[in-house]
Amino acid sequence: MSTGGFGARADVRDRAIALGVAAALLVTGVSGRHPGGAGPAVLGAALLSVGSLALVARRRAPLAVLAVTGICALGHQAVGYDVPAVAFLFAVYAAVRAGHHTLTVAASATMLAALPLAVLAAGAPDPGEAFARARGALELAWLVAAGAAGEALRQAERRADEAERTREEAARRRADEERLHIARELHDSLTHQISVIKVQAEAAVHVARRRGEPVPAALVAIRDAGREATRELRATLEALRDDATSPPRGLADVPALVERARAAGLDATLTVRGRPDDVPDTVDRTAYRIVQESLTNITRHAGAARASVRIDHRPDALALRVDDDGSATPDDPPAPGVGLLGMRERVTALGGSLVARPRDGGGFTVRADLPLDRTP
Questions:
Q1: What is d(CA 60, CA 47) in angstroms, rounded to the nearest whole number?
Q2: 34: pLDDT confidence band, cut at 50, 70 and 90?
C-alpha cells in the first residue's frame, strides 16, 4: 500500500499548523509591551517565529524540534515577550507520539524549572511574580494534556498496526490453506488421469515393440508428453505443498540448493556479493524460488556440466543470476515451461524484472532484479 499521498497531506498539515501557530504568537507578542526597546523586541519576534516554524519538522525530528521550541520559548521570555509556550506544547505532543517518553519528561521538567529564571532575566520585580508569569506561559496541566494526547494517538496507531498485521497473517494462512487444498485436488484428480494415460501409452509402445510392429509416432508423442506432464505436475505439487506446510525458505537456504545440485553431479558454484541486510520476506522467498527453479531446470533439462549462482545485494535491489553451459542456443531455445512462467509472475508481482534466455556462447541464463521496497 502506497503511503505517498498520506505523507504529502501530513506535510501540508504540518506546514499549516506551524504557520498558524507562528501567526498567532507573533500577533500576541507584538501587541504586548516590550520594556527592553526595539532590539529585544526584534529578537523576541525572531525567536517566536523560529520556534513556531520548527514545528514543520515535528514528525521527522521530534526531539530536535522539542529542543528548538524549548530554547526559543526561554529566549522570548527572557527578552520580555510574555507569550505562552504553545509551540513547545506541540513539540511535547509530537515527541510523546514518537515514543520518546523519558527525554520528553526531562525536557518538560527543565522548561518548568528554567522559565522562572528567564522571566526574572526579563525584569520581573520579585520571584513570586516570576513564578506567576512562568506558570502563565507554561502550566503543568498543559504539559500533561499534550503528553496524554500524544500517547493516546501513539497507542491508537500501534493497535491499528497490530490489527493490520493480524489481517495480513490471516490472509497468508488462508492462502496457505488454499494452496494445500489445490495440491490435494490436483493429486486426487489430474495426477491420476495423467498417470493412466502415461501407463497406457507406455504399455502400447512396449507391446508394439515386442511384436516387432512399427510404433506410431503419435503414440510415442503421447508417452513422452505424459512423462513430461507427470514431472511438471509433481514439481508443481511439491512447490504448493512446500509453501503451505513448510517454514518459508529464503536466501539462507540457497547454499543447500547448490549443494544438492552438486550431489546430483552438477559442478555448481555460489557467489554472494554485498551484505544481506534487511531483505523483505517476499523478496527473500522469491529469490529462493528463482534459484530453486533454475537449478531444477538445469539438472533435469539443460544437459549442463557446470552452473553458477550469483547473488548481489545492492542498496536498492537484490540481483540474481544463474548461468549454465547446457545445450541451449539462441537458434534453438528451449520451450518455456510452467516453472519459468511461475518465476516471471513472482518477479512481476514485486515490481522487478526477469530475463531468461539462451546465452550467445551456449547455455542458458536467468537474471532477476528484485527491488527492495522498505517503505512501511
A1: 21
A2: low
Residue 79 φ/ψ, nearest 5 degrees: -100, 10
In the sheet with 364-371, reading across from the earlier edge strand, the strands are 267-273, 306-313, 317-324, 364-371, 353-358
Report the chain's terminal Cα–Cα distance, integer Å: 8
* Contacts for 155-163: CB closer than 8 Å, 24+ residues apart: 157/97
d(CA 215, CA 217): 6
The pTM of this model reads 0.46
Q: Between vectors from CA 211 to CA 205 and to CA 213, what angle results, nearest 5°?
A: 70
What is the secondary structure of 39-83 as a DSSP string? HHHHHHHHHHHHHHHGGGGTTT-HHHHHHHHHHHHHHHHHTT---
- Interatomic CA distance for residues 135 and 118, integer angstroms: 12
CA 65, CA 68: separation in Å to the nearest integer?
A: 5
Distance CA 135, CA 143 (A): 11
Tens digits of residue pLDDT in 48-83: 888 888 888 888 888 998 999 888 888 878 877 778
Enumerate the H helices of the chain as residue ranges: 4-30, 38-53, 62-78, 86-97, 101-121, 127-137, 140-185, 192-210, 217-245, 254-263, 281-297, 338-349
DSSP track, 126-164 = SHHHHHHHHHHHS-HHHHHHHHHHHHHHHHHHHHHHHHH
pLDDT tens for 104-151 read: 899 888 888 888 888 777 666 667 776 777 777 777 788 888 888 888
CB neighbours of residue 199 within 10 Å: 12
pLDDT score of 241:
57
